[in-house]
Amino acid sequence: MKSKELAPPLGRGEESPPSVRLLMGALMLVMLLSALDQTIVSTALPTIVGELGGLDRLSWIVTAYMLASTIVVPLYGKFGDLFGRKTVLQISVVLFLIGSVLCGLAQNMEQLILTRALQGLGGGGLMVVSMAAVADIIPPADRGKYQGLFGGVFGLATVVGPLLGGFIVQHASWRWIFYINLPLGLFALLVINAVFKANTKRKPHEIDYPGAVCLSVALVGITLFTSEGGTVRAWGDPQLWCILAFGLVGVIGFIYEERRAWEPIIPLSLFRNRSFSLSSLMAFIVGMSLFGSVTFLPLYLQVVKGSTPTEAGLQLLPLMGGLLVTSIISGRIISRTGRYRMFPIAGTLLATLGMELMTTLTLNSPLWQIYLYACVLGMGMGMVMQVLVLAVQNSVAPDSMGVATSSVTLFRSVGGSIGVALFGAMFSHVLKSGLTKLVEQGDVLPATLDPNAVHQLPHDVQQAYLQVFSEAVHAAFQMAAVVMAVAFVLSLFLPESPLRSKAKQ
């Protein structure tokens, strides 16, 4: 059934009419809005922790947003079919903007984490609806260049986010990194209202609310366990293991519900499709590695290299530039050749190499080395993320396109949420252990993770502090490299199907 809401599907090689190009622009705008807030806080983390405290919950500023957006991803596709994509997108943007305002007004770490979660409830709808809409009107054979552009937008958000965040923190208050969403969000609302036409015909759906509840319980339980284990709570704390048990019960309940639900969030039959299973697992791993490790790179640049927040944002340009370039180039090559399997293989290998190179950095390593290694990492990531979505969309039946797309996005978001929490716990544990040894030696250390306070320490104490901090960042990247190596092995088994020449009908 053709959608009344979008332009008619294109055939291969057809020139995109102005309405389609305008629609693509609108979809990329809302994706930019969602992706921007995954990265804009990274350069502001030291400043936020310095003002609000809560070093042990630093990673939750990122995790809360990603976890909340992950939980609602499976529901937004069904909501779009029930109420229309235009309505769902508008509600998502409004919810996102309300969360942004409340984040800017937060007075302590608990308030900020809760309002970041509210932001995520809105942001989760923006990315998945835009990705599914591309599959509705663009045939797989031509979809590579559009997916490349969407990957480019994601890369642009990753470039602009840290840079914009650093500039705002240095020249204003960190609270403006949330207020800045207001003009962009309002503009997105205007574009959506102008471009999208109301869908007058609905396809009836049954929303799997029990499955959504079980999925939420599973994700919150597992993420809390990975983030608090060894940091906030000791590994022997019975409450910690109760949290894990709570999460595992959610996993079991989710699987049970998916087997009996009329319209499951993730139909278990999809996992019999080899492309879907491997792509979903790789998306999970890539999300875990990317968000779990790169979150700490701006921290490293500010604390170890003495960069200002703005400089730290600029110094991420090689990483984001590499991601942007390879994402666009790989998309165009796929559209011309119809072959995509080689890109996840090469991409995961490059990303593993880049993360391993990051662990070799020392206190005296020149900045050009950081730029080079970050560029290698970004180039690898750019060849993987959007190609996995394309591989899944090309391998499933047309009536499973939407749920398959949202499922891969879900797995990537789940991986990102768990990765930030897990690597954050590793970072905090190594840092806390090292700093405890320095305190036992009689050194006086700053109470917060404030780069200025660190750089005012006596030279010997400062060098010892920076060495401990570097080891904590290295631990996060080492874990990310091992995880990404698993994705490389999986990519070798990814099948390649001929790209279909017709879009979803």
Automatic annotation (TrEMBL):
Name the domain of life this protein comes from: Bacteria
Xref: InterPro entries? EmrB-like (IPR004638), MFS (IPR011701), MFS_dom (IPR020846), MFS_trans_sf (IPR036259)
Q: One MF term from GO for this chain?
A: transmembrane transporter activity
| Listed GO CC annotations | plasma membrane
What compartments host this protein?
Answer: Cell membrane
**Topology in the lipid bilayer:** Multi-pass membrane protein
SUPFAM superfamilies hit by this protein:
MFS general substrate transporter
The record's listing under Pfam families reads: MFS_1
Record's protein name: EmrB/QacA family drug resistance transporter
Give the source species.
Pantoea rwandensis
Q: What is the lineage of its organism?
A: Bacteria, Pseudomonadati, Pseudomonadota, Gammaproteobacteria, Enterobacterales
